[in-house]
Amino acid sequence: MHFSDDDLRSALERKSPSPDFTQRVMAQIGKQQAKAPGKFAGLSIFRWWRPQWAVATALAACLLLALSWTQYHRYQQRVEAQNARKQVVLALRITSEKVNGALRQALFAGKTNH
Amino acid sequence: MVDDREGRMQAALEKAALGDHLSFAEIVQQHQRMVFSIAWHFLRNRALAEEVAQEIFLQLYQNLSSIQSPAHLTHWLRRVTAHRCIDQSRRLKPDVALEEVPEPTARMQMPDPLLHQQLRKSVAALPEKWRMMVILRYQEGLDLAEISELLDVPLNTVKSGLQRSLLELRRKLTRRLGEVRYALF
User: Fold this and answer.
1) 3-state secondary structure string across B98-166
2) What is the pLDDT of residue B91?
3) Using a CB-CB distance cutoff of 8 angstroms, which residues of chain B are in contact with residue A17?
4) Which residues of chain B neighbour A7 with C-beta distances below 8 Å?
5) In this predicted complex, what is the ipTM?
């Protein structure tokens, strides 16, 4: 049996679905949205989301991080300075006590020689 | 004219992605014949074909943001329809005899209705992949490379599949029309 490509094209030509097909699809979409409002509400929020906002948020976060790090660094330096000062005062006190002890011994030795 | 339609479809796509239902309805109207026809010629069951087409448009609605252009939309719809139909056909149990399924009511008059009816029935009896190749080739007018890309099969498989499908169709038609003529005369 012979048939041409055109026969096959005609046999397989496009057909129309029922006239209310589009309405049924739209009704189904409406039903799905009503069933899962959370999901679609989430989607509608993301529809407002823009990449520029993400960049701005990232920049703000970086700035905040840098400021926090600087503040922490200054606080650390202050604590270290206070500790160093305390150590210097302690060292001076010890030195002063040693010098006083040495002077007392020297004075005592001078008195006993005379 | 084509550019105008493309421009309108591009605008509809952008609006539909922002949640405009009217624009999405326009997209459905523009593409429903293509999607439904692929499904109908493949499944040979009007109700099932409409159900599959409906599911495909729902899937499209959920993936609208990934569609970049009208051409991309057509490609996406053809691809999803082809794979959905093949999956559906594999899931189906053969409880409906393909030969007894009635033709859609809104059918156009054709030069040789008997030949075309027998051709549709013979196409519907082809193995799944071959059937889809024939539908994409002769209904949608796609070239072999496009079919190969849509169905994720090598180009040579498409070539040999189409050749073997046509041989099989000729063989079946010879047998069926011979039987019809024998019954008539």
Assistant:
1) HHHCCCCCCCCCCCCHHHHHHHHHHHHCCCHHHHHHHHHHHCCCCCHHHHHHHHCCCHHHHHHHHHHHH
2) 80
3) 32-33, 36, 49-50, 53
4) 112, 115-116, 119
5) 0.78
